[in-house]
Amino acid sequence: MVRGRHEVTGVLLVGGASSRFGSSKALALFEGEELAVRAYRLLEETFGIAMAVGKDDDDLDLPFPIEDDGRDERAAIVGVEAALRLAPTEIAVVLPTDMPFVTGRLLRALAAAAERADAVIVQSGPLPGAYRRSALRVLEGRIERGDLALWAAAEELGATVLEAAAEELRNVNTPADLQA
């Protein structure tokens, strides 16, 4: 059974360090819209429930609330763990702010595959991905041990790999990537 539109939370990660970008990727403009606003809108349109997870200290000026992940570390695994802890649903589809080409179709496919797996990732990495609340124990344990590799956590969870179009998985790492 595929869950309905309101039984999955779309989660936007906005807490990345943006070290190669030089400033917050969340606020960078792409086709006249901030990357975070574009991604949040996509998640909300796709699932009906969306939330953003990041760091309160970043003080990002965005038109939606940002839930603090509650940790000092800056790593994707921290955002995914916070998403599962804070989301009102069993499944969270997690999207980093720097992937402006992802489609609702891909996000829905990730959510559907999570009906049968603790974690569903794409072939190029653990994000975007869908994670079930049952993955929380593994993620928390890895963070407590200082093992912050989300790839390794996905492997431990026996993640299902969903093949996605390479174009959708392009991310923005530098200001030049926004122009390309």
How would you describe the overall organization of this protein?
This protein has helices at residues 35-47, 76-86, 104-113, 136-145, 150-156, 175-179; strands spanning 8-13, 29-30, 33-34, 50-54, 66-68, 91-96, 119-122, 125-132, 160-162. By secondary structure, the protein is α/β, with parallel strands linked by helices. The protein has one domain: Spore Coat Polysaccharide Biosynthesis Protein SpsA, Chain A (Alpha-Beta Complex), CATH 3.90.550. The N and C termini lie far apart (40 Å). The mean pLDDT is 90.
CATH class: Alpha Beta
Strand order of the largest sheet: 5-4-1-6-8-7-9
Named CATH architecture:
Alpha-Beta Complex
Quaternary structure of the protein:
single chain
> So how many helices?
6
Q: Radius of gyration from the CA trace? A: 15 Å
Sequence of secondary-structure elements: EEEHEEHEHEEHHEH
Main β-sheet description:
7 strands, mixed
CATH superfamily: Spore Coat Polysaccharide Biosynthesis Protein SpsA, Chain A
Going by helix content, strand content and strand pairing, the class is alpha/beta
Annotated CATH topology: Spore Coat Polysaccharide Biosynthesis Protein SpsA, Chain A
Number of strands: 9
Average pLDDT figure: 90
Any low-confidence stretches, pLDDT <50, length ≥5?
none
